[in-house]
Task: structure prediction
Amino acid sequence: MASPSYWEDHGRRKGVTAETAQVIPLSDIAGLYRWVWCSDADKEWYYKAEQLQDLKTLSKLVFEVTDDNTSEPASVRGCFDIGYMHGTFSKLARVPETKNVYELHGIDLGEDDYTKSLVTPYGNVLKILDAQDDDGNRFLSFEFNTGWQGCRPETGGWMVAKRCTGPRWLRMSDRERFALGMEVDDEELQRRAWQRAGVPAREPVGEEKTRFLSGVYSGTVKRAKIESVNFGFGFDIEKLAEDHPTMKVFAM
Result:
């Protein structure tokens, strides 16, 4: 089974991407979720019909908005259960310079030694993904921190969660796997990278423009006599060509 994947830095990467075009209201994600992908096992999680009757003991992710008048990160609390690992959190805090990536704060791991050996109270991250399920709900990912390496949290793994709307589904559909980048070819993953960066996925107009390919550009600006210029991922190549009509730009 292929892993959820995306395109970055010239190649295919295992993982998922958060929504970047807009901030998703946290009230929209309130509810019960079930895990559908585990990075540690590198496989999809699915369920048997009899398991869906016991929500309390089944692995899950739950979000609750505690103030009906707001969906600020501080007003969201919940819990996560992954096998025998359990924890609760009292609020979220948006990661700076992101729209839909949050750290879980106020984590309580209880007294269970097994849980404490697998996850720490700090550095655990929730992402609201750009992929949606068949009901139009956002998939979520949960990256849990197993410790510290220097001053940085060390990610122990990541899980993908699908909103549970009743006992109608036991596993993901083919369309949902496709939305997460599973068993998707490189060309489609590149197209999604263009879309996230706001670059039209179409052929260029004129010799001075180029199609967004892999995120790094070089060029020559004759007017300024600069031999080469490098641009980071997501640079607005259309505007660049308009502002500098003598620039020859190509993808690397």
About this structure: The longest strand covers residues 138-149.
